[in-house]
Design goal:
The protein is α/β, with parallel strands linked by helices and 712 residues long. Among the domains are: 172 residues, Valyl/Leucyl/Isoleucyl-tRNA synthetase, editing domain (Isoleucyl-tRNA Synthetase, domain 2, Alpha-Beta Complex); 136 residues, Isoleucyl-tRNA Synthetase, Domain 1 (Orthogonal Bundle), CATH 1.10.730.10. The chain contains 20 helices and 25 strands. A four-stranded antiparallel beta sheet has the order 6-5-14-16.
C-alpha cells in the first residue's frame, strides 16, 4: 500500500496516469480481457478540424464521449473510440488565408500544387498538437486506429461513393446560380449561407409604362424580362407583349411574362427577371426558355461590373449602385426610393461578405430519394435523438431538402474523381486515375480542378473509418462495430453533418450509421454570452486544466447541462469542482491512513446497519448507470457528486470516526471494511467523469490493477 501526498496536485499525476493507460494497451478493444466473447460498443470521434488548437467546445465532446467509453468498457464491452482529424476543406483554407495575409501573401499568388503542400504541412503540425491536447483531456481513444480525412484509404472510399452515386444517376453537373463568395472565390452550399437582416433602399424604377421595385439596380443590365403573377389583373394587357423603355444605356425592349413565383404584394407586383444574378430568376428563366433570353452576367466573380455595363465597367457593386441611381434620377426613370426596406441578405458564414449569386457549372447530388430513406428511418425510430425535439427539426429539414452543390473552387481538399479529355468526350468517372479517356482512348486527359465540399467526405466518416481499420485487417471493424452506438456532436451541425451521415450511410451500406444521436449545446459564459475573442470571455480548457485539473473541467462541463441546451461554464464553476476533487483526495487519505493501522480479518461479518450503507452505495451506482444509459450525463454526475460529498463524506465517514478511533478491533475492522467497500464503489462510479484522480487513488489501494478496466 502506498500513501497519497498531503495535497492534491493534478499536474503531478495526470501525465503519469495517461501513460499508464496508454502503456496498458487497453484503449485498443482487442486487448481487453475476454474481448472475443464481449459485446461491442463503438463511438467514432467527430474529427476536429486540423487547423487550430482545441477549444472549450472540443472539451465538451471529449468529456461526454469519454464518459460513455469508460462506462461501457467497465461494463465489460469491447469499447472502441476511434479518433481522427478533418482536413476541413474550406474552413482550413480560410484559416490558412489569414495566416498568409499576416505574412503579406495571398494564396492566389501561389501555384495550386505548392499551396496544397503548404496547407498539408500546416494541418499535419496541427494534428500532432490536437492529438496531444486530446490526450491531455483524458481521451481514452484507440490511437492505433486514428484516421485523417485525407488518408489514401479514406479518399478511396469517398471516391467509391461518388462513383456509385454517379452510376446510379444521382450525380449531375449543371449550370445553376450558386452562392458565390467574392472574397474566397468559391461557391458555397445553401447551408453555408448566413442570412443577416439589413435595411437597404428599395428603388422604384420605371420600365416604360410599368414600374417595379428592386434593391439591386446594378443588376438591371442583366434583365431579360419583366414578370407578373398570372392572377394579377392589373397587368393583363401587357402580358406576352414587348414594351419599350428608357434605360441608363439607351432604349431597350423587354418582354412581360407571367410566373406564379412572383409575389403580387411585393412592391408594385412587377419584378425584373435577372437570371444570372438571382436563383429564383434563374428558375423563372428555366421555365420560360422559349420566351426570353438566357442569363447575362453583368457582375463578375470579384464583385465588379462587367464590360456589358458600359461606363460602369470595373466598379464595385456599392459604388456602381450609387452611380446608376444618380443616372436614373438624371434621366427621370427613378420614380421613388423607400429608404427603410428591411430584408434578409445572404452572406458568407466565414467572412461576412455579401454573396453574389452567379451561374456556375457545378457538381450536384439529387437529394430527394436519399433524403426520403433517411426520413423513413428516423420516422420509424431506428435512430434515437437526444434531445427528442431535434427529431422533428431533422424531419422538417429532410422534407424541404434541395439538391446539394458538392463542388468547391478551392485548392485544399479531395479532388473530384472526374477526368476530361481534349476531344470533349463525356467525362470519365473513376476511383483510380485512368491512363486514357474511356470513350476515345486519348491519353491527353486532366482531372477536375474542383474539390469536394468537406461535408461530402466527412458525411461518410462512420463507414469510411471502419472500412479501413484496423491496419492489419482493414474492414474487420466494419463487420464488428457498424452501425456504431452513438454519434455525439453539437446541435449546430445537425444539418451540416449528422443528417448527411445518415443519408450517405444508408445509401452506401444499407444500414443506419449509428443508433443514437446526442446533441450538445454551445458553450457560453456565466452571463450566457457566446464565447468570443472580441468579448474577452474565452476560457481555454487546457489553461484552466493546468490550474484546476482536467477532472474539475470535465465535471464543470457536465453537471447542470442537459442535451440540446447551451452549456454554461465559468472559472468559478471549475474551481468548485477542483474543491470536490480535493474532497475525494482527502477521503482517500483518511481511509488509507486507517488501512495501514487495521489488520483485516478475512471473515468479517457486517452488521445490518453497515450492510445497508454498502447497499445504498450500490443502489446509487445503479441509478448512475441508468442515467448514463439514458444519456442523462448531468443527472449521473450530480448523483455521484452529491452521494460522495453529502452522504459518504458528511454522514457515513463522520458517523464512523468513533468506531475507528474508540471501538474494539472487531468494530474497527468492520467499520473500515464498510468504508473501503463503499469508497471503491465511489471510485468506480466517479471514474468515467473524473478519470485521473480516481485512477491515481485506486492505484494506492490495488497496485497491480487498473481502474479503467475494472468491472463496473
Amino acid at each position: 500500500m502506498q500513501e497519497l501526498n498531503p495535497r492534491y496536485n493534478p499536474s503531478e499525476i495526470e501525465s503519469k496516469i495517461y501513460k499508464l493507460w496508454e502503456d496498458s494497451g487497453y484503449f485498443n478493444p482487442d486487448n481487453l480481457k475476454n474481448s472475443k466473447k464481449s459485446k461491442n460498443f463503438c463511438i467514432i470521434m467527430p474529427p476536429p478540424n486540423a487547423n487550430g488548437a482545441l477549444h472549450m467546445g472540443h472539451a465538451v465532446f471529449v468529456t461526454l464521449q469519454d464518459i460513455l467509453i469508460r462506462f461501457w468498457r467497465m461494463k465489460g464491452f469491447r469499447a472502441l473510440w476511434l479518433p481522427g482529424a478533418d482536413h476541413a476543406g474550406f474552413e482550413t483554407q480560410v484559416v490558412f488565408d489569414k495566416k498568409l495575409e499576416k505574412e503579406g501573401k495571398s494564396r492566389f499568388q501561389i501555384p495550386a500544387d505548392i499551396l496544397w503542400e503548404q496547407i498539408w504541412n500546416f494541418t499535419q503540425e496541427n494534428k500532432k498538437i490536437m492529438e496531444a491536447q486530446l490526450k491531455r483531456l483524458g481521451a481514452s481513444c484507440d490511437w492505433s486506429r486514428e484516421k485523417f480525412t485525407l488518408d489514401k484509404d479514406i479518399v478511396k472510399v469517398v471516391y467509391e461513393t461518388f462513383k456509385k452515386l454517379y452510376d446510379d444517376g444521382l450525380i449531375y453537373r449543371k449550370l445553376r446560380v450558386v452562392n458565390w463568395c467574392t472574397k474566397h472565390q468559391t461557391a458555397l452550399s445553401d447551408l453555408e449561407v448566413k442570412y443577416v437582416t439589413k435595411q437597404d433602399p428599395l428603388y422604384y424604377i420605371k420600365y416604360g409604362p410599368l414600374t417595379l421595385a428592386t434593391v439591386r439596380p446594378e443588376t438591371k443590365f442583366g434583365d431579360t424580362a419583366l414578370a407578373v403573377n398570372p392572377k394579377d389583373k392589373r397587368y393583363e394587357k401587357y402580358i406576352g407583349k414587348e414594351i419599350e423603355a428608357r434605360d441608363v444605356l439607351g432604349k431597350i425592349k423587354i418582354k412581360v411574362i407571367t410566373d406564379s413565383a412572383v409575389d403580387p404584394n411585393f412592391g408594385t407586383g412587377v419584378v425584373k427577371v435577372t437570371p444570372a444574378h438571382d436563383p429564383a430568376d434563374f428558375e423563372i428563366w428555366e421555365r420560360h426558355k422559349d420566351e426570353i433570353p438566357g442569363p447575362k452576367i453583368v457582375i463578375n466573380e470579384y464583385g465588379r461590373l462587367t464590360e456589358s455595363t458600359g461606363p460602369f465597367q470595373g466598379l464595385k457593386i456599392q459604388e456602381a449602385r450609387e452611380k446608376i441611381v444618380e443616372e436614373m434620377k438624371r434621366i427621370g426613370i427613378l420614380e421613388k426610393i423607400d429608404e427603410n426596406y428591411t430584408h434578409e441578405v445572404a452572406t458568407c458564414y466565414k467572412c461576412g461578405t455579401i454573396l453574389e449569386p452567379l451561374p456556375k457549372m457545378q457538381w450536384w447530388i439529387k437529394m430527394e430519394s436519399i433524403a426520403k430513406n433517411a426520413e423513413n428511418v428516423i420516422k420509424s425510430n431506428k435512430i434515437n435523438f437526444y434531445p427528442k425535439h431535434s427529431k422533428k427539426v431533422a424531419l422538417h429539414w429532410l422534407k424541404n431538402i434541395r439538391d446539394w452543390n458538392i463542388s468547391r473552387q478551392i485548392a485544399w481538399g479531395i479532388r473530384i474523381p472526374v477526368w476530361y479529355c481534349k476531344n470533349n468526350c463525356k467525362p470519365t468517372v473513376s476511383v483510380e486515375t485512368p491512363k486514357k479517356c474511356a470513350y476515345c482512348g486519348s491519353t491527353e486527359i486532366y482531372q477536375e480542378k474542383d474539390v469536394f465540399d468537406t461535408w461530402f467526405s466527412s458525411g461518410q466518416w462512420p463507414f469510411a473509418t471502419l472500412m479501413t481499420t484496423p491496419k492489419n485487417k482493414p474492414g474487420d471493424d466494419f463487420k464488428k462495430f457498424y452501425p456504431t452506438d452513438v454519434m455525439e456532436t453539437g446541435y449546430d451541425i445537425l444539418f451540416f453533418w449528422v443528417l448527411r451521415m445518415i443519408m450517405l450511410g444508408l445509401y452506401r451500406t444499407k444500414k443506419i450509421p449509428f443508433k443514437n444521436v446526442y446533441l450538445h449545446g454551445m458553450v457560453r459564459d456565466k452571463d450566457r454570452q457566446k464565447m468570443s475573442k472580441s468579448k474577452g470571455n474565452v476560457i481555454d480548457p487546457l489553461g484552466v486544466a493546468e490550474t484546476y485539473g482536467v477532472d474539475a473541467v470535465r465535471m464543470a462541463l457536465i453537471i447542470g447541462n442537459t442535451a440540446g441546451n447551451d452549456i454554461i461554464i465559468s472559472e468559478e464553476k471549475i474551481k468548485g469542482y477542483r474543491n470536490f476533487a480535493t474532497k475525494v483526495w482527502n477521503i482517500a487519505r483518511f481511509i488509507l491512513m486507517h488501512k495501514s493501522q487495521i489488520k483485516l480479518n478475512s471473515k468479517i461479518k457486517l452488521s445490518k446497519k453497515n450492510q445497508s450503507k454498502i447497499n445504498q452505495a450500490l443502489k446509487t451506482k445503479k441509478q448512475v448507470e441508468n442515467h448514463l444509459k439514458k444519456f442523462e450525463f448531468h443527472l449521473a454526475g450530480h448523483k455521484v457528486y452529491h452521494y460522495i460529498w453529502h452522504n459518504f463524506a458528511d454522514k457515513i465517514i463522520e458517523e464512523s470516526k468513533k468506531s475507528l478511533y474508540e471501538g474494539s478491533d472487531k468494530e474497527k475492522q468492520e467499520t473500515y471494511f464498510m468504508l473501503e467497500s463503499i469508497f471503491i464503489e465511489c471510485l468506480k462510479m466517479l471514474h468515467p467523469f473524473m478519470p485521473f484522480i480516481t485512477e491515481e487513488i485506486y492505484q494506492k489501494f490495488f497496485e497491480n490493477k487498473i481502474l479503467m478496466v475494472e468491472k463496473w
